[in-house]
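INFO batch 0412 | record 1 of 1 | parsing
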Amino acid sequence: MYETITTVQGRLVADPVVVEGRGGPFTKFRVAQSERHQVRGEPGRWADSDPSYYDVSVFRGLGENAARSLRKGHPVVVHGKLRVRQYPRSDGSTGVAVEMDAHSVGHDLRWGSTVYTRNSDLAPAMPSEGATAGLPDLGDTGFGDPARDRYVVEQGPSVPLGGSAGDEAAARVDTGPLLPTGSERAA
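INFO prediction complete | emitting tokens
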């Protein structure tokens, strides 16, 4: 059978969700994509087409990084295998779902900038034995390991690139540090 490989540019309609599957945890999110076109007969006026929705599944390390990095509203570029699936609805009609198994995912840099951080430079996804002793249970991100579940990515302070802190011409970026989850986090 042939596979359909495609690239979709759009925005996340909700935060990614980590789901436990038969082969282990994976990340799911939904991307909305629409085209912008000029309104016929009205020069200078633009309109968006009705959105198309894609249900994206991301596996292994890519899925974990997507769960750490992506949030509702982020512009993304997703490349992967496309599937169109029909399913029965409760009212007896047939629904259609467009699904992608992502091979690569990234922020769409037309709309902003991002900072790349190697996995080895992040706080350990799985702290060493005893490193979490005495810490309160701070929540579950769904990866199934309490030591790993203690960390999430949050938007960090902006830092200038290529200039001093007072240099207003310098670009501003988010550092995105890993922080503990839950109410124990500093305000």
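INFO post-check: Residues 125-187 have pLDDT under 50 and may be disordered.
INFO record closed
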